[in-house]
Amino acid sequence: MITVFFKKCRSSLYKKTYYSALIYILLRISEFHSINIRWKQSHTAIHRKKQNIEKQKRLKEERSSKICSSTIGFPTEFTRSILYPHHFFSSEAISGINQANFFFSDTELNKLFKLSKEASLRRVGLSSSVINKSCLEELKKKASEYIEIDENTENIEALLEILSKNGKIKEFFDLEKEKNEESIIVKLVSICKTQKIFEQEKKKEDVMRRLMDLKNSNSKAIQLLNITMAIQKFRQHELDTGSPEVQAAVFTVRIHYINFHLSFHYKDKNSLKSLRHLVHKRQAILKYLRRKDYDRYFSCIKKLGLTDNAVLNEITI
């Protein structure tokens, strides 16, 4: 009776979601002793298998956190500071990162643009000290006698246009009122000229910042920036560019960069071959450092996130 009912239900409920639930109920209420025992055995086996899979997954995660990879090692302050393309080319801006290209820092660029403004002013016999609060307040106070002005206004050329439109320009420059009014014309001309130069320099600065921004560069420029950072962090003295620590750090930067590339392009066989080659070159330079100076070796691999076993037990191909 149950078998007939089971066959009819199978044809009508095969593609529905509650088909498995129906089988479960039929097997549980079955009066046949053999079917009931078989169900209990299969259910116990399935439950045990799920527990074993979860246990193996948990143990694998625990062991993987303790085993040092010979390629990328453990995360450290140095490896976390390595820059990747998504830091610059993504829509979300990341703060605290040097945005300048061509081996310039943001501080050097700001200093360069400041010196450029001062040079442009000296070319016409002016200086940035012309635009100071005392001079601006004096001119705004005199202009307020003829027109209503905003306290936050600093554009003198705009004030002169307002005076001209209101017909107060002659009264403002009336030299017969006081004897020392000639200095006001000199101040006005100097401030207007300085503000105009500042506007031109601001446009130049915006153009240069766009050209020097790493967002307008390529992946190779970001890798060169990482190599420069590695040299600065691992050098033994100011002119050091080739000590074993520096070479190992440069290899580590390139390894992490290629490893990041392979995480998206896993079929790139040439990059995979380059990655293995760099790992073995780093292993050779670290083994040399281990023979030469034991303390420097352990200090270096600690910064790189490697262990002694990861270096020595790496298979050389």
Automatic annotation (TrEMBL):
The keyword Ribonucleoprotein applies. GO terms for molecular function: structural constituent of ribosome. It holds the Pfam family Ribosomal_S15. GO terms for cellular component: cytoplasm; ribonucleoprotein complex; ribosome. It comes from the Eukaryota. HAMAP family: Ribosomal_uS15_B. This is Ribosomal protein S15. The lineage of its organism: Eukaryota, Fungi, Dikarya, Ascomycota, Taphrinomycotina.
